[in-house]
């Protein structure tokens, strides 16, 4: 490698010795003869010579120019360390959506991250948000930069617009995870590229953290809960962690619970109740209370009313933290599309460490200069001895 590679432009100077040899004026060698009697007369003609002569001397002079250029370039062949830098900054966006982290997803994601010397890791349930955060971090970095996205890449999870915010010069790579489609909702089925929802849905066998009590109107209350559960994720949950109940006014215990109401005192209870109390159309019909670690919401309305359905949907959605509808997408982005979105980072930077060895090349240049001087002063061996002695003298 060379410390100053731009110096190789000086090789254009090789044309100088060639021009000198072409333009040099050549003098004829004078020889002494005792008589011209036996030399035939010839017609004199002017001949301009354009042929290269004395090729060994020309090659020596060209070698001097080439070696001088190499010396200026600063060769570091001996004891030099050449380092080609990889990406100086790598941002890894890991898909933290429920579909990507289910089953073998976490192990595959950990394996993918361990194989990358990541500078920062962004875990995001939404790939566009994760890419936006990673791009903002990469914008503040210098050197080569690269973005690695690890996901199962369900269709619709990412598009060209999501990648348009990645800064120019930043490489983009994708590492697909094994795809495990979320279980379909009760009553939902795919027929080719079409979907169909059966109504009313069959009751789900998945335990829910929400129960309903309505006494004589229990059948209608169960139907409302079943209908609401069909519209949210009903993945298995820890039924003992967060329990809530909706008690309608038709339930026998409704009056007693209202009389013995205890203020709620758990953060998760406030999270479940907050959407209800913020809705003016609902807040006058509910009374949140706590009993034996269970959140009880007293609803002063009929079980089959629209307000009751809204209350059950809001509470169940907060308790379950349902999946977005995109997680039920049964297809993934084609690998060909992912490869089309990939791009390489900016070119690698090469650094050379070690002391330049140009002084040894300069020494060789001096040797060749001595050879060139000797060749220039040498006398052709074809000259007569007296002419050679006269020139030398």
Model description:
By secondary structure, this protein is α/β, with parallel strands linked by helices. The chain has three domains: 5-35 and 43-81 and 353-392, no CATH class; 89-182 and 329-341, no CATH class; 207-322, no CATH class. The chain has 14 helices and twelve strands. The protein has helices at 15-23, 55-73, 98-101, 105-114, 127-139, 160-163, 218-229, 254-259, 267-277, 280-283, 306-320, 335-341, 358-377, 385-392; strands at 81-84, 89-95, 120-124, 145-151, 171-176, 188-191, 194-197, 210-213, 244-248, 286-291, 294-299, 350-353. It is rod-shaped.
Brief write-up:
The protein is an alpha/beta fold. It has 14 helices and twelve strands. The chain folds into three domains: 110 residues, no CATH class; 107 residues, no CATH class; 116 residues, no CATH class.
Q: What does the main sheet amount to?
A: 4 strands, parallel
- Total of helices: 14
**Uncertain runs:** 101-106, 236-240
Q: If you average the pLDDT, what whole number results?
A: 75
Radius of gyration: 44 Å
Structural class: alpha/beta
Number of domains: 3
Strand order of the largest sheet: 3-2-4-5
Portion of residues within helices: 25-40%
Measured distance between first and last alpha carbons: 49 Å
Helix/strand order, N-terminal first = HHEEHHEHEHEEEEHEHHHEEHHEHH
Count of strand segments: 12
Question: So what's the overall shape?
Answer: rod-shaped
Q: How large is the share of residues in beta strands?
A: 15-25%
